[in-house]
Amino acid sequence: MSQTQESTKTIVLDRDGVINKDSPNYIKSHEEWIPIPGSLEAISSLHQAGFYILIATNQSGLARGLFDEFELAKMHHKLCSMVEEEGGFVSGIFYCPHSADDECECRKPNTGMLIQAENELGVSLDGSPFVGDSLKDLQAATAHGMRPILVRTGNGSATEQQIDGTNLSHVSIYDDLQQAVVDILTEES
Fold first, then answer.
1. Separation of alpha carbons 144 and 125, rounded Å
2. pLDDT band at 5 (very low <50, low <70, confident <90, very high)
3. What residues are paired with 174 via a beta bridge?
4. Is this prediction's pTM over 0.90?
5. Would you call 14 a catalytic residue per the annotation?
6. 145 and 61 in contact (C-beta within 8 Å)?
7. Torsion, CA 6, CA 119, CA 30, CA 18, rounded to 10
8. Distance (Å, rounded) from C-alpha 5 to C-alpha 11?
């Protein structure tokens, strides 16, 4: 199942803490990659509503030597396969392999992955929703002219406390991806 280039609706999702359970010790293997209940169904609902689903994820565990590109590919294969089993489709996964010390352009809160996604897929992310659980996700979304959405899963509850009273206090906040998607799809109809 694939999605045609005619689709104009696009959403960007962070991975760890939004789609799958996160760990302070990093997700280092496909066995450790466990979806958050309802997240795969939410992605399927988005796909069936005509959205391109893009994932933008910082994966500094690569730079730290905690896992390699092959293991990361196995994690992403598992994610995509499980989404497809639910009737959905992930149009692209973009990741930053660098550590924060590398000062690269792709690591969120920088927007390099978002620019790469636009260039590779020929879409504009301007005004599109970006669902994340960290301050870096919200900052990247805002810097790229996207609509930042926070979920309380993963690091989201702690992030919610960080943004209170900041210029990000207007961000929509949901308990999880499934709840956010219900609202996004309601707005679309």
1. 8
2. very low
3. 151
4. yes
5. yes
6. no
7. -70
8. 14
